[in-house]
Amino acid sequence: MNEKEIGSLIKLLDDPDAEIARHVEDRLLSYGNEVIEQLEFAWEQSMDTILQERLENLIHRIQFSEVKRELSLWYNGGAFDLLQGAIIINKYQYPDIDPQKIINQIEDIKREVWLQILYDMSAIEKVKLINHVFYNIYGFSGNTTNHQDPQNSYISQVLETKRGNQISLALIYSVIAQRLDIPVYGVNLPQHFILAYVDESKEDTDEKVLFYINAFNKGFIFGKRDVDSFLKQLNLSPEKQFYEPCTNADIIKRILRNLTSSYLKLGYEEKVREVGELLEALETPSAGD
Q1: How many Å apart are CA 82 and CA 249, to the nearest integer?
Q2: Which stretches make up the Protein SirB1 N-terminal domain (predicted)?
C-alpha cells in the first residue's frame, strides 16, 4: 500500500472539479479495506463538513463492497456456517464489531448447556434444557413491542439486548444446538420461522422431524398438526418446504427480506436498495457453478 499516494488522494477529495473528485474516489475505492484507517483519521482531522461527508460515503462504500464480497464467497463456498452468514450481515450495519465477540457470546451459552447435558437425555429433555438456559438463565425473548425494528435482525444487537424476532432467535438457538450435536434446524414457514428437531437416522423424510420448536415463544414444543392448522389459517396448501429444514442460505435470505421490510416502513430508501444488492449476492452463482 502506497501511503503517500493515499495521503495525496485524500487531499484531492474536496477538489471542486467533479471529474477529478470522482477519479480520486474510484482510486481510493480500489484499495478496499486497506485505506479505511487513513480515511477515518482524515475525517477526525477535518473541519470541512463537505469533505467529512465525502469521507463518510467513501468509507461506507468500501465497507459495503466488502460485505457483498464476503457474502458472495460464503454463498458460493457452500454456505456451510450459518453463524458466519449472520456475522457477515451484521457487518453491514456494524462494520466495527469484532466477530470474535459474537462467537464468544454464542460459546458462553453453549458451554452453559453443555455443563448440564446428560448423555442419555431424550430429544425433548435436551430441548427443555436449552430452553432453560436460553430463556431463563440468559433471558432471551421475542421483541413483541417493536417487532419491525431492524435491530432485531442483527445478531450482535440480539445478543446484547436479548430481544429479537422469530428468525434471529431461531438462528442463535439452532447454532447453539448444532454446536452441541443436537439436530435442530430452521424451517422456512410463511409469516413465521420455526425450528425442527430432526432424527437423522431416519431415511424417510416424512418421519425425520420429531417435533417443532417456536424460538420466539420461549422454545414452545409442538407437532405437525399445529403446522397444518397454521397453514390453514393462512389459506396455504401444505407444501413440503413448510415442514422440512431449509438451507442456511434460505435463512440468511429471509433475514435480508425482513430488513428490507423494516427499512421500507422507516422510509430508508438507500438501505432498501443496498439490502437488495446483498440479496442479489445470494442469488448469483459464481462462474464455476
Answers
A1: 8
A2: 101-257
